[in-house]
Amino acid sequence: MKNLPFTEKADYISRCLELAVLLEVSGYPKPGNVHRTADFPETRYEHFLASAVAIAPSFKKAAKQGIKLSEEKISPAEVGIGKIIKDAVDRMRLSQSGGNTLLGAIILLSPVAAAAGMISNSFSLSKLRENIKVIVESTTPEDAVAVYDAIALLNPGGLNKVKKLDVTDPESKKRLLDEGVTLFGTFEISSSYDSVASEWVHNYPITFDLGYPYFVKQLEETGDINTATVHTYLKILAEVPDTLIARKAGQAKAESISAEAEQVLKEGGLATPSGRNLLHKLDIKLRDSAHSLSPGTTADIIGAVLALNNLNGYKT
After folding, report:
1. Backbone dihedral region of 181: left (phi > 0), alpha (psi from -120 to 50 degrees) or beta?
2. pTM check: above 0.90
């Protein structure tokens, strides 16, 4: 990546992230999610594909900002990650009719794109992680307002009312600016009940420390990216109860689903008949009509894991 010209480097980063989103939604059968062999009535696999293609230019913009930052043409606070997220959400909405497909993935991957752009020499995951920390901790109140605007356009499920700076409160955006609350600060507020926000605040521990090492091991053992994707999804779900489920159906239900995901892995997952049988049963169980049991946050984090893998040189 180090020898690529400005535009080609940004293109490469964008393609890596776009492919990560495509591979994530294509992984099957990820229980409770839309994937290549299962749809929801109102949101289909094709809606996710269209969204992934549509948001790629936003990742390219983020990468370009990261490159400018590495060249000291802008400061970290001028990256504008909030506007990039808002732009990606707009592109996602206008690209398909299936609603909110990729908000969590956009929030997780936009800093990754900018952080990758910042790397001017040989790529390494440690450099990427250091740069992500710079990007998210340098956000501004204006970034926060942009993301609040984006979320308001989507009205996503599972948003709980909070006492401070509630995203559904029209007065919150004024308070963000008046009180100088950055986007990072808003995610600090929600990090205790939202794993996407927690990843931002704690420098992506599920992605880097749990998901990616396990994914690489699975890929080496199975030689199959789909199996590695599904097993890593189950591993994260088993160890980190999905916060979207917790907000919709309660923490106890989220923990019980985690226990079932762990059991699927113990039975061998996709590698054994008994594992596949349990996986199929779990997939059916999590497809309730209200989608209250869909592990959407886990899927978002899998997208970030796949992004690391692609940026680190993986070829499908």
Report:
1. beta
2. yes
Could you tell me if 145 and 172 are in contact, meaning their C-beta atoms sit under 8 angstroms apart? Answer: no
pLDDT digits (tens, 9 = 90+) for 222-251: 999 999 999 999 999 999 999 999 999 999
In angstroms, the CA 273 to CA 268 distance is 8
Per-residue pLDDT reduced to its tens digit, 165-210: 778 787 899 999 999 999 999 999 999 999 999 999 999 999 999 9
**Residue 219 contacts residue 232 (beta carbons within 8 Å):** no
Q: Burial of 312 by CB count in 10 Å (0-12 exposed, 13-18 middle, 19+ buried)?
A: middle
Domain definitions of the chain by residue range:
6-311
Nearest CA among 12, 210, 25, 50 for reference residue 104? 25
Range 6-311: architecture per CATH = Orthogonal Bundle (1.10)
Q: Which residues contact 95 (CB under 8 A, 6 or more apart)?
A: 50, 51, 53, 54, 55
Chain centre distance of CA 258: 19
